[in-house]
Design goal:
- With 277 residues, the chain is α/β, with parallel strands linked by helices.
- The chain is built from ten helices and six strands.
- Strands 1, 2, 3, 4, 5 and 6 form a six-stranded mixed sheet that branches.
- The radius of gyration is 24 Å and the shape is globular.
- This is Lipoprotein.
- Keywords: Signal.
- It comes from Alkalimonas amylolytica.
Length: 277
């Protein structure tokens, strides 16, 4: 009897005989939508919980509004893949340093009626991202930008830290604006190099936004390609970038090898960290 016929007969007998051992169950992952599997894989690979369910979460008492995301949302799987790729650029030590505990994915995110692509909840160590924006390069930029705000809060006790080392790195008569909440136009985010030391108008809106924008271009490839020419000829930008890498790299030295290729393209050396006593 041929092997395939033998197998068929065996399966039929198993179905007929009540005492026959059950066949191995279908793996659970084969029954789940791909996005659910992607969530599981993310949570297994990172020490940060990715969730779509805000019902059991504590969130800061701001005027937050958003819609829940379904596992069958067509934009969910591409977003999770992007999230996995971008956060995978960070060493584990940096994620731990940030204090980030959870990432919540939503749709139609807003604060006090103002649409947002992301909101950092510093109180509960949660990053909230809106998956509805289809420009994936910009989503990558936003991901790193908001992560830096979480990192700054954890390191300095405030996401609006008035960094004394950073403040002198600007034109003498320049004053930062009122913050990112007041720079929401699309042209504010464009890499226009509006002034020496600034990659866009959004960076001019606040010191915290300036630092977050420069952090972002270190990790988001498309953003880096656009800003690199500015960095090659703007000494203020070069000084800021070098200082930022020094500040974070001395606290999380694991990022230095991952950023070496960026700095080498600009002929920028790493600043040596102070020796611990």
């Amino acid at each position: 009897m041929k092997p395939c016929i033998q197998l068929t007969v065996a399966l039929l007998l198993c179905a007929l005989l009540s005492h026959c051992s059950q066949l191995p169950p279908t793996p659970t992952s084969e029954l789940l939508p791909p996005s659910a599997v992607a969530v599981q894989q993310f949570n297994q690979g990172f020490r940060v919980q990715l969730t779509l369910n805000s019902m059991e979460m504590q969130l800061a008492p701001w005027a937050l509004q958003f819609d829940a995301v379904s596992l069958h949302d067509q934009d969910l799987l591409p977003y999770i893949r992007m999230l996995t790729q971008e956060l995978g650029k960070y060493p584990t030590e940096l994620l731990e340093l940030s204090g980030l505990q959870q990432i919540l994915l939503v749709r139609n995110l807003s604060v006090a009626g103002q649409p947002r692509l992301a909101v950092p909840d510093y109180v509960h160590e949660v990053l909230i991202y809106d998956i509805g924006h289809h420009d994936m390069a910009f989503n990558r930029h936003v991901l790193h930008h908001e992560f830096y705000h979480m990192l700054e809060e954890e390191l300095y006790g405030s996401a609006y830290y008035r960094d004394p080392l950073w403040l002198p790195l600007k034109p003498a008569d320049f004053r930062y604006g009122k913050g990112g909440a007041y720079a929401r136009a699309s042209e504010d985010a464009a890499f226009s190099h509006p002034l020496q030391g600034f990659i866009n108008r959004y960076a001019m809106s606040g010191l915290e936004e300036d630092k977050a924008e420069l952090w972002t271009i270190l990790w988001a490839d498309a953003s880096w390609r656009q800003v690199k020419p500015m960095l090659q000829q703007d000494q203020l930008l070069r000084d800021k970038l070098q200082l930022l890498v020094y500040q974070i790299g001395c606290l999380a030295p694991e990022i230095r090898p991952r950023l070496a290729h960026r700095l080498s393209k600009l002929d920028l050396p790493f600043i040596a960290c102070a020796q611990k006593e």
